[in-house]
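Quick start: what a row looks like.
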Amino acid sequence: MNAIEIQSLRKDYGHGRIGVEDITLEVPSGTIVGFIGPNGAGKTTTIRVLLGLLAPTSGSARLFGHDVRTDGPRARAGIGYVPGETNLYPSMKVGDLLAYLAKFHPGDHRARRRELVELFELDLDATTTDLSVGNKKKVAIVAALEPAPRLVILDEPTSGLDPIVRARLFDRLRDEVARGTTVFFSSHALGEVEATCERVAIVNRGRVVAYDDVAALRRRAMRRVHATFAEGGTGGDALTGLASRRLDGVESLERHGTSITFLYRGPIPPLLDALAAASPTDVRIEEASLEDVFLADFAPERTGAHHHVA
């Protein structure tokens, strides 16, 4: 069964403001999927529709087979959610707030709460009003994970977290997936998405423009080329000229001293011919990273301005 099924989803706010144009997406149960895209691409709008916080203009969204509009309570049963902006009840102790929120879920999960509080180093006696942005986010994460949800949806979960806590969060999410939980999260931290997710959906201008496993996205006929030349030689100039004028498929070319780096999408033989003609002292050809793919294909400056909102 799919944990998430979105079909032809559209959200129109009116007055020319479109949150989601046409999103179709399936997330299998027991997987961890990243949801990435530029600001205003439709990530947060999609998540809010899934949670019943927004009603779609058209299309449908289902969680574990239940329509989020017509069968909302069953669709959202057993769902954990971490919002992008964390607003907590004011002037409550952290321990009291977590105990209060736990009452909304069946079962006794106090042991999990203690484990998560220790993992994320929360001070249960601290007052919510006095918490930093990062500590508020940690409270939201603990509250979302405590009841052992079957699906966890996180909107920019690492915002405000230091690197150590981010690493602990993603380790914990992988552990949750190993026991059968589904994880769906949006993020701007593409390196973390690449290291954590099995599959990635890239959304742009309100549509899913790519959805595949991370390795397949990196293999989108794109390679990163590094070439180094002898000091005082002319090879670097020659290759720069070939790459920019005659070699189709060159992008993001940069020169640093005696080295050049560029992204290349195209057949290998012309690339090798160009490299051989320039006589470099060292050449490395690598698969592009997920960030390379995203910036080359889906950065806002390449796709143009648009009238979408988050």
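That is the whole record. The CA atoms of residues 71 and 77 lie 10 Å apart. DSSP finds twelve helices and 14 strands in the chain.
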